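Exercise 7 asks you to align residues with tokens for two separate proteins.
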Amino acid sequence: MIDVASFQVSALAFVAAFLAAGVFTILFKLIYQLVTPYNERRLIREGNVAAAITLGAALIGYILPLASALAHTVSLAEFAAWAVLAGVIQIVAFTVVRQLAMRDLSERVERGELAAAIYMASISIGVGLLNAACMTA
């Protein structure tokens, strides 16, 4: 038999955590798009697959540590701190690649070059995986 009161408490906690994760994801996406020198929204609407890959991978790279933080934190305040840190790390990774490893990344993404997008995507997801793993300690 289901304990209705216990389920209601758990369901409320689920909804709060899910909404918090959604809000942080949207905020990250908006900030990430402000940091990138190209306009992902316009490029994606124009059919630029490279822009879609880099943005999508950045989101996955951010959401992976969010999921880990949700699984390993005990409060929304602690989750929020990890969410902010995960966003900073993901943006720093993009900036380092753009400044050091592939200085022409922005131009290549704007031209729709898949090789550059896949390279950036792999870094974004890899950083996200490492970030998530570090949050389990």
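Second protein for Exercise 7:
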Amino acid sequence: MATPTNRDGLRVAQPVPVPRAEVVPRPAPRAARSRERMRLVAGAFGLMAPALLTLLAVSLYPVLRSLWLSFRDTTLALQTDSFTGLKNYRLLWSDEQFWNAWRQTVGFTVASTLLETLIGLGIALVLAASFRGRGLVRAAVLIPWAIPTVVTSRMFGWLFDGQNGVVNYLLVRLHLVSHNVNFLGSTNLALPTIVLADVWKTAPFMALLILAGLQTIPHSYTEAGRVDGASAWRIFWSIKLPMLMPSLLIAALLRALDAFRIFDLPYVLTGGGPADSTETLSTLAYKRLFSGLEIGYGSALSTAMFISEGLIAIGFALFIFRRLRAVEG
């Protein structure tokens, strides 16, 4: 660009542009910021209102209705309906059938959750590794979880049939037993068989949850462990497992709450038998409510089941918070 000159041929100095001072916006008054925040919160609740109302209609109302019926003597068979206060809960406290179902439900929940978490962890560690066909293996692992529970129940009923089951055939041919074992007709073996069926079906779901947690662990941590000469077991125990613990606990919480409501497997396989050895709180509540038409007592039983699940959730939540606080500390 040519420099301008005067008539004498001398260069003319150009004026140096003076930068304009930036205008710093004044901070909004506190009252205005508060109104803006309230407007955003109100808008968020407005967007969530349909979902919240639907949730209240399909979840909260049945719970409150069941709680109200638990204080009444409502029996459709006898056409009675009267307020009795805590009578149903006093009967429940002294009902040995209820305590038997409660103990078996807790035992089933503990056994299935523990086994599914351990097996799911093993499957997740395998699926997290790099190998040919990993995508196909991941899809195939989820097949048991995708099968409807009723179909799983019928399948295990045929497999463990006391007369013509495949499991009995293999055990006899391998000379592990001398005669057929009545798995579903034995008071000692029926509940473990149901646990086995539930583990086969739900362990892939646990593996999926744990795999998601494994993939959040930075790859640089494991690489640093390998550089330091740590073995695969040491890397898992000292690096992966501590960082995976929150995901493990949350997965176990979800599974425990779901296992405590188990209904379809024992109902289809054994119907709660033999001799109430596979009776759970869900099957017992179903029989009292829909077979015995004892609406009041069945509602009290359902409420006790709801309280038990709440205690399980609180226990897991406290343990998870302590673990998270220990990791942050």
